[in-house]
Amino acid sequence: MGSVVSIRCARFLIRDDRVYPFALAVILGGLMTARVGHIVDNWTVYAGRPDQFIAFWNGGLAVTAAPIGASLAGLVAARALALPIGFMFDTSVIGIVLGEAIGRLGDIVNGEHHGVACSGMPWCVRYTGASTLGQREAAHPVAAYDLVIDAVLFAVLFRAWRRLRGRSPEGRVYLLYMALYGAARVASSSLRADPQVLGAFQEAQLLGVAYVLGVTLVVISHVRHRA
User: How far apart are the two ends of the chain, measured CA to CA in Å?
Assistant: First the structure.
């Protein structure tokens, strides 16, 4: 679904088939670093099981790490295919965030991504099905929170893209995504029962901070360059 939306947006400027290998590169690149992020986040599980490093089919992706691989692969593909980098990045993130929102539906169903304890709120959830991965005690539905956040980001990014498309400098929608997504993950992860990798910070929070700081540096550099 995300690819369909991004490709339709890209048709505003790119009318040939170069959008397909570009989209494939972005997807594969995102999957690779999402897998790496998951392994790092759960190193105690994977340290003695190198045969499971690439076992996507057994589950396990750190979605917050996906933008790294997607961006690098997209950069290489755009240059190789002679595509406008900023424009393609802008159209990509619209579909990516939609795909992330849809993916959260599966997380809600199977109870992935445990939340901290929740009480006194009508949307607190607990999972009673033996086949789910969810918590038996009442917890925050963090996957549902992320779904709402991603859906709002999709609406914001699509509206921004419609206003900015074809106007220089390209890439502003991509930067907006990275900043908003990073900030949102820092906030929403505070309600997740994920392992802490540096002090009180989870991996997703560290990446979120890095994304926000990276965008800030890019904007400052651009402003100084224009001045």
Answer: 41
